[in-house]
Here is the input.
Amino acid sequence: MIKPKKEHIAVVLNEPRYPENIGAAARAMKNMGFNQLLVVRPYRFDFEKIAKMATHEALEIVESLKTFEDIEEALAPFNYVVGTTARTGRLRRPNGSPRDMAEHIVPISQENQIALLFGSEKWGLTNEDLKYCDYLVTIPTDGFASINLAQSVMILCYEIAMAEREDSLFQPKRASVHELENMYSHLQEVFLEIGFLRPENPEYWMRNVRSLFSRVGLLSKEVQLIRGLCRQFLWYASNKDQSRHPKAAEEP
Amino acid sequence: MIKPKKEHIAVVLNEPRYPENIGAAARAMKNMGFNQLLVVRPYRFDFEKIAKMATHEALEIVESLKTFEDIEEALAPFNYVVGTTARTGRLRRPNGSPRDMAEHIVPISQENQIALLFGSEKWGLTNEDLKYCDYLVTIPTDGFASINLAQSVMILCYEIAMAEREDSLFQPKRASVHELENMYSHLQEVFLEIGFLRPENPEYWMRNVRSLFSRVGLLSKEVQLIRGLCRQFLWYASNKDQSRHPKAAEEP
Here is the structure.
């Protein structure tokens, strides 16, 4: 049996409002054996309130937590992003429960950096945030779906800590969010050039493209291949007026 | 498959210190579909702080919660008591994890009232509290075992809400804590009479007696049988000097 690699798994809080919840999340992480905490644009970062809720034992998590101004920057080094949502809908089809997710990421965690992404207490994750997510998890509730932020962190960490899987499921290292976002920008440039996207709302079709590639789980070298294609196409497009038979680009 | 009967399951907080934790526990219960909250000797019962953490949706739980001055009085109507402990030891051998417990109580919950008992933030459950417990659960942690009270409530409620079992396991209605405590008092009287217990420390052997009967899971009518035996013996003891051949008691 293999266990999840906890040292490859981080909690990312996007725009948390209450410092008490940051502290309580840190304590829950410490209980379950997780150490990496990232916080994006906290509404109020009151170190004393955070530390009090974290308790002395989780202080090291709080002291080493990283804050970011931008969610994409925070997620850049990660290879797999698990989002959490209470609301479901057309753009929010959950892939599974915390238990399903925990089992699913056991093999992925062996070679990949995984982010558990939580939205703010007020809105949860926005549609814009969801585009970074490879897996969407919904905690099953009975009537009242809005779970306290630190409680949600606890349930996901608890389920991962409880999970194990058979040993045979090798999962190669995936491309990072940083590599993927550069690829999506590149693709979007190509799609706009050929009129596949409407300039006034390019995100609409890009969501489907993201969803497809997320399901595939691209590797770094595959991202390089796709970006090579984009470069070649853009060279072709910028030269197509000069010549009807363009030669290959120098950097394919 | 059968699911646990949530309406038969209550959360009992023994001497909680922080009103915020009572409120957060109520919210967690509401998320998972539980409604009965009992609080024994709260250190500070600040309704406003409790209600704020409970949020509007769990307010009905807070408004209908019952407070008690005595743990035995709070537990009296219950047929099965699940205790929670972070510390383990000779008197604290956990029967299982929250997941084991949840699966175990699915059939019991069909016909029995179940209490989930949590100790104070400061000490947890005392040895004295543990004597009421039929099942002891420890939440598995990784290094730092002290979990926030409301987080512990969430994990147990979450596991119960997730649990289901095959349909075939019928569990008859057990004796309540009230019936059992009267029986133990009666037994203790008998044991002291025959010199089976030391008057200066009767609890020592009584713990083993409790542990045995807890494992058996006595029914109401079996408690009546044992109490009848006790009554008969005590009649015999009080009359043994008068006659060497006592006749049967009038109320056997």
